[in-house]
Design a protein that fits this description.
This protein has helices at about 5-20, 90-100, 105-120, 150-170; strands at about 5, 25-30, 35-40, 45-50, 60-65, 85, 130-135, 140. The protein has about 170 residues and is α+β, with helices and mostly antiparallel strands. The chain has 2 domains: about 1-80 and about 135-174, no CATH class; about 85-135, no CATH class.
Length: about 170
């Protein structure tokens, strides 16, 4: 099991996504024991377990590895798959109209409209110069789907390596 870090991990996941941009999920939750965030990124062929130092900054420190788990055991609570969706001007107008109408109604009424618009657009591989929506990222307070002993061991290793990474970058880090 090879641990990947930061840009190398992001690039590798994007390459994996580019081979088949369909049916991905991206679920993030607070780690119950270490103050970091856990993420499971999966499609029908593979599962990746990630550790992030924060979700509140644009470029968090992140570590991850592919896990040997049956992807069918990792379910996403969302019916709209994660991915990049090309945003044509007409689609953007629909989104903006929904947002404007949402100001007159409750936020609970807006979500199904946006889900309907974005869910109707197929996920694609992004190219330079295009306009894309990325997501959805599922944020939950439940623990991420750790379904095997191997994943539990990997979580411990990711936690330890994240602490080492942060100590190496910030000498005052506990």
């Amino acid at each position: 099991m090879e641990l990947l870090e930061g840009r190398k991990l992001s690039k590798h996941l994007l390459e994996r996504y580019a081979k088949n941009p369909r049916n991905w999920s991206f679920t993030v939750s607070p780690s119950p024991k270490d103050g970091f965030f856990d993420a499971i990124v999966a499609n029908k062929d593979e599962v990746w377990q990630l550790k992030l130092d924060s979700i509140f900054k644009p470029s968090p420190f992140m570590l991850g590895a592919r896990v040997d788990v049956d992807p069918s055991r990792v379910s996403s609570p969302n019916t709209i798959p994660y991915g990049y969706r090309k945003l044509e001007p007409q689609i953007l107008l629909e989104v903006f109209k929904s947002l404007a109408e949402g100001q007159k109604s409750s936020p609970d009424d807006l979500s199904p409209k946006l889900d309907s618009i974005l869910g109707s657009i197929d996920t694609v591989v992004p190219t330079r110069g295009g306009s894309y929506a990325e997501g959805p990222f599922i944020m939950t307070n439940k623990e991420t789907a750790i379904v095997s002993d191997g994943q539990k061991k990997l979580d411990d290793k990711l936690n330890s390596e994240m602490r080492k990474l942060l100590r190496g970058r910030f000498s005052s880090y506990g």
